Amino acid sequence: MAKSVLVIGGGPAGLAAARTLGKLGIHTILVEKEGKLGGRPILEEYHTLIPRKMKPQQVIGPFIEEVQNNPNVEVKLNTEIEACEGEAPNFKVTLSNGETVEVGAIVVATGFQHFDAKRKGELGYGIYPDVITNLELEQMFSREGKLYRPSNGELPKRVAFVFCVGSRDRQLGVTNVHCCRYGCALSGLQGSEIREKYPEVEVFCYYMDVRTYGTWEYPFYWAPQEKYGVRYVRGRIAEITYSPKDGRLRVKHEDTIVQRPAEIPMDLVVLVLGMEPSEGTKKVAKILGLAQDPDNQFLIPAEDSGSNIISNKAGIFIAGACKGPIDIESSLAEGEAAGAEAATFIGAKVSA
Amino acid sequence: MAETQVRKYGYNIPISEKTLQVPWEEKVRIIEEVKSDFRFKEYLFGCLNCGVCTASCPSNRFFDYSPREIVQRFLENDIDVLYDMMHEYIWACSQCFTCWIRCPFVNNPGGLVIIMREVAVRNAFEATKDLLKPYGRVLLKVMTTGNQLSADMLQPDFFPDWGPKMLDNMENLRAKRMAIPFDVGKSVKTAWEVSLQTAIEMYQIWRETGIFEMLEKLDPNLYNVIMDIVEENEERWEELMEEMEEAEA
Question: What is the ipTM score, two decimals?
Fold first, then answer.
């Protein structure tokens, strides 16, 4: 009878699961593909996290620390899973370092990846240097602490946020028809940050709907407009071109509220990227035989369970962005819940 | 009686008095004909009114025409507006299908316009007749030879929008055609050489698909001119076939 739990993925959900398991005194193996814990927010150096406007280090840092300092948690970096044999509670999992571990339960927290903006050719990403992604804008803030146009290093006069790039889009096939959930709110925050630091810069958000759901409505929808003067224009950007005459970009859209076609000069265009299941999520789903959504390929919970973290396989729990777009605080909560579920799963077997 | 309220659509286009006078049942019949087309359900899905189609639309830049409006009116099932659109509005579409290529929800406004145009032509709408009049010569050429344009169609009054330089190009057509360094059929009547067999097969297609009938309703004079040429070519073809049979025998 295996008494260990394997956690796959060292991002927010995986860290939260490992931390909970460690605190419960359960031997836990945490495997992480990259050479560093923390997941996307730490690895890709996000600047500020929604909704609490904290730094990634503030939010995820304590989780990393606790996991690393807990003797019950064995962290294996640069490691993936390669194969899995057996059923719960006796899984035999082969790791990429050649090791085989015997575990009683598995928590899958393999996360998401950002949409590749080059797939939307009409938006000119990769062609015009001043078309950047919202991830690159985060890195611009966190690494350099200033806003500038990549083409000439100057402060832009006008910045446009293009919502739903790689989300809610059937042109990309069935894989990208879902909403990214975070884009509207993050753009509101990024726009506010720009306006706060550079009041002379005009910021425009081009949207179809603004989905700052729940309590995010005021801080990420009304505050950007009322407090910081971010301007919202209803219409999806159809294409982005460049004018050599003035060296500025042109965003083309229809203002669907006043029903008027428009082509507006912009100095910097920020593409708000959608979320896709990570390569790791797809790989782990195949190895462990986890159910995936036939369209978007994210993991889906067991059909007969109302719980969001119970997978279709006994003893395997799924948490965080491997199941679809999710914010970081929910991701942490799901990781904690999955850790606790895994603990009870093993505990129940042990006492029987 | 209270005055009828003027209903508007598009960029402030009022619904025409003519459309309002057409019996409701007739308008419903026409729109049902459009909606029962086998392509219709593949061209219309949900719409978020994002405006990508209209922003991408070249016709939208020059005319009162918006592909988003087409989709919206179908989703609303606005019979009056749809019926009215079929008389002028939809003819501004240039059928480039950028709307379809870009729509995040894969609606096909350009495709809906095709169906509407076909129904308008099949039902011999007055407006359709007027709209097709300037294309009489193109139709004549297409239906008899399969060519849209030929050198001899370059005449001063024909393409005024091509500008004054075109007038020079219209002189000595035959010599200019001969000077083209590759084979263009050495003819000014067609853009390329059309074999009699190809033409005969094409007429067969026009017959089978009801194109001739459609044309007869729209423009009886043009129909007669075209049928004269068609029949002449068909006779020539039959004579040729007979000669060949005799030669074989």
Answer: 0.84
